[in-house]
Amino acid sequence: MPLTPLDIHNKEFSRRIRGYDEDEVNEFLDQVIKDYEAVIRENKELNNQLLSVQEKLDHFSNIEETLSKTIIVAQEAADEVKNNSKKEAQLIVKEAEKNADRIVNEALSKSRKISLEVEELKKQASIYRARFRTLVEAQLELLTQDGWEALENREHEVREREREMKEIY
């Protein structure tokens, strides 16, 4: 068991004939008691500081461990988000390519359909022009025939008879 300042203070030495000077020994013991008390106080303060520092160290160690785990979790989450983003981007690109192919195919189909319609309209226009030309030519032929002159002469005769009839009546 370690000595306490009280143990030192209460220590009694046996007396001998040529022993040490009692006052000198008592003074020295008083000085030892003061120094020993100071050392004990300093030791308690240092122990208290050590406990405080140890608590802080434990606290910061816990924070460090928590931060380390958090960083690992955040890194894993970031990697997962990155991988998910890549997968989503690939899906979007594939979907866009499908849509582009579909749009191109629809455009080609419409283009073919319009091209066929244009060809059909050209044929119909050609047939119409041929029929119209035939009709105009037939009408011209009728106009150039001698039969028109005979009609004109008859018409002229009919008018003259009408005049004559009017004059008679």
Write a structural description.
This protein is an all-alpha fold and 169 residues long. Helices cover 89% and strands 0% of the residues. It has helices at 5-10, 22-144, 147-168. The model has no long low-confidence stretch (mean pLDDT 89).
Please give a handful of descriptors for the protein shown.
169 residues; mainly alpha; 3 helices; 89% helix
Write the layout of secondary structure elements.
Blueprint: H1 5-10, H2 22-144, H3 147-168
Mean pLDDT: 89
Count of DSSP H/I helices: 3
Q: Summarize the helix and strand pattern as letters.
A: HHH
How much helicity do the residues have? Answer: over 70%
Total DSSP E strands: 0
The rounded Rg comes to 65 Å
Quaternary structure classification: single chain
Low-confidence stretches: none
Beta content comes to under 5%
What is the gist of this entry?
It contains 3 helices and no strands.
